[in-house]
Amino acid sequence: MKYIIGIDEVGRGSLAGPLFVSAVAIPTNLRFKESLKDSKKLSPKQREEWFKKIKSHPKINFTISKIYPRAIENKNVSKAANLAALRAFKRLTSNFQRLTSSTSVFLDGGLYLGNGQNRIPAKTVIRGDEKITAIKIASIIAKVSRDSLMARLAKKYPKYKFEVHKGYGTKRHIQAIKKFGPSKIHRRSFLRFI
User: Fold this and answer.
1) Number of Cβ within a 10 Å radius of residue 164
2) Whose CA is closest to 112, among 154, 75, 84?
3) Could you give the strand order of the β-sheet that contains 19-27, starting from the edge strand earlier in sequence?
4) φ and ψ at 55, to 5 degrees?
5) Is residue 65 predicted with pLDDT exceeding 80?
6) What is the pLDDT, as a whole number, of residue 117?
7) Could you tell me if 160 and 11 are in contact, meaning their C-beta atoms sit under 8 angstroms apart?
8) CA end-to-end span of the chain, whole Å?
9) CA spacing 20 to 30 A to 105: which of 4, 52, 156, 159?
10) Is the pTM here over 0.90, yes or no?
11) Separation of alpha carbons 175 and 194, rounded Å
């Protein structure tokens, strides 16, 4: 059976919390009865329903990699996202033995696997999360997993209401930062312009 790998990230533009990257391996002939969409085009309830289907599907294999705020600040967000993508890919390919050299690898947007001579052959596809099923699945996994973590972090840092905005720069979130100052999970370099 031939497989395809899709990789996507969530949380690049967030003011707080980690960046998540998911790598997914699916058979090239995998089809769903319902139309699968990019996570941004699904409601939270729809994303949760898809996540349950994906987790229980016997032919879908996935991994998640996280990069926390301190590492994002040290590396810059693009390098951090690419590092997380590489980690997720390596974890997936070491855990899932059915992949072969003919397995196609696709990444969404500005993601790459490695750099220079160490770059792993993969294709970066602009708006891949709208075009390629494996990337759509990766986007749902990353989004639901990150949102779940941000909801848990909201209990630790209740003043910021992370369960509502998931760390993104909403008006309410910016007002909380101005009132209470940044928490330990805020990306301080992202706060310079607010």
Assistant:
1) 13
2) 84
3) 61-67, 19-27, 3-10, 104-108, 123-125
4) -60, -35
5) yes
6) 54
7) no
8) 51
9) 52
10) yes
11) 9
For the chain, which domains are there?
Answer: 3-153 (3.30.420.10)
Amino acid at 163: E
Within 10 Å of residue 48's Cβ, how many Cβ atoms?
Answer: 15
CA nearest 122: which of 148, 101, 151?
Answer: 101
Measured CA angle at 148 (ends 4, 27), to 5 deg: 15
Contact yes or no for 83/75 (Cβ under 8 A): yes
Q: What is the pLDDT of residues 89-141, one digit of tens each?
A: 999 998 777 777 778 999 998 898 876 555 677 889 999 889 999 999 999 99
Report the pLDDT averaged over residues 143-164.
97
The three-state (H, E, C) secondary structure of the chain, written as one string: CCEEEEEEEECCCCCECCEEEEEEEEECCCCCCCCCCCHHHCCHHHHHHHHHHHHHCCCCEEEEEEECHHHHHHHCHHHHHHHHHHHHHHHHHHHCCCCCCCCEEEEECCCCCCCHHHCCCCEEECCHHHHCHHHHHHHHHHHHHHHHHHHHHHHHCHHHCHHHHCCCCCHHHHHHHHHHCCCCCECHHHHCCC
Find tokens 């890919």 and name the residue.
89
Cβ atoms of 147 and 166 within 8 Å: the answer is yes
